[in-house]
Amino acid sequence: MRDRKFMQSLTQAHIGSPEYTDKSKARIRKAWKEASKLQREAILYLCGTSVSSVHRAYIKGRVTAKIISAMAQELRIDPVYLLGKSDTQRDYTDGILTRFLEELGYEIKDGYAKKKKRNLSRKPSVIKQKPESVWGFGKSGINLPEGLHDAEALCAVVNGIIDTEALDKLESLTLEDMDILLRGIIIQAAISPGKRTRLNAIKYLLSS
Questions:
Q1: CA nearest 53: which of 12, 92, 18?
Q2: Taking the C-alpha atoms of 84, 85, 88 and 90 in order, what is their torsion angle to the nearest 10 degrees?
Q3: Average pLDDT of the chain?
C-alpha cells in the first residue's frame, strides 16, 4: 500500500498514447463514476490534487502516473488495464502497481518513486547519420541544403534519419526534460565553439 508521500513523488507527465486514449478515458470515467465518495476523496488526497485533474484524464485524455496509480490502488484495478494498454484485467496487487511504475521508468526506493534519467548521450542510437550540410551555419544564418527553404523542410530531413524507437523517446520528453537539455546545450556552446552550430540550429527551429 503506497502512501501520499509516495504518490506525490510521481510526476505530472502525460503517460497516455493515442493508441489507447479512448480506452483510458472510458475506463477512468467508469471507475470514477462508480467510486464512492470516500474513495474519491482518498484518491484526491493521495494525489494532492483537485477533481479537475481527474476530469482532464477522462475528458481530454491527459493521464498521469499519479491519477492512474492512486485510482488503481484505491479501487483495486489493474493500472495497465485502467490506462488502456491491456484488455485483460488482473486482480490488483501492490506488486502489479510497482511493476507498472518501473515500466514507466521509475525507481522505487525508500518510500519514493524517482524517475530514472534518460541516457541521451548515445548519439548512434538516436541519429543514424548526421549530414553536416543540414547543420551548416554561415554569415546569413542556417545554410540549408538545396531544395530546403524553411524549418518544416529541415524537420522532415531530421525526422527521416531518426529511428522509430528513438523518436518515441524524444516525443516522451517533458518540458522539464527539455529545459534541462537546452540549458546543457547552452553551457556546452559557451565552453566549446564547436557546439555552437547545434545550438544555432535549435534556435533556428524554435524561432521559425
A1: 12
A2: -90
A3: 78
